[in-house]
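Final report, Chapter 2: Outcomes

The project's central promise was a pipeline that accepts a single protein chain and returns its three-dimensional structure in a standardized token representation, suitable for archiving and comparison. That pipeline is now operational. To close this chapter, we reproduce one record exactly as it appears in the project archive, with the input sequence first and the structure output second.
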Amino acid sequence: MDVRRDLSHLVVLTTLGSPDAARKLISGLVEDGVVACGTILGGAQSIFRWEGAITEEDEVLVLLKTHRERWEDLRKAVSTRHPYDVPELLAIPVEAGLEAYLDWVTDVTAKGGSKAE
């Protein structure tokens, strides 16, 4: 397995209130080609301050895999599609990854790309 070191890919985190909401968001982002894949991790519990009160919510964590060049498109898409007023959206650079996987992410997120399977 070839591993490539580069910083051209991102894992982007967001949270949503339910698996159904996460599926809906991810499906639209994949359809738009701004992410190659979204992974839903259930069982998250967030504790945060909102409008002056400490709030506790059950959520799902979503990991979105994309190319750095699609960040702005992804940010805009999440801003319009996410049901939260202030959605969490954190981009974490990928330091290294399996070359074939990174190539796949690059291909399916390329503007006008082949949308390879």
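Archive annotation: The helical segments are 19-32, 71-81, 99-109.
This record, like all others produced under the grant, will remain available to the consortium after the project formally closes.
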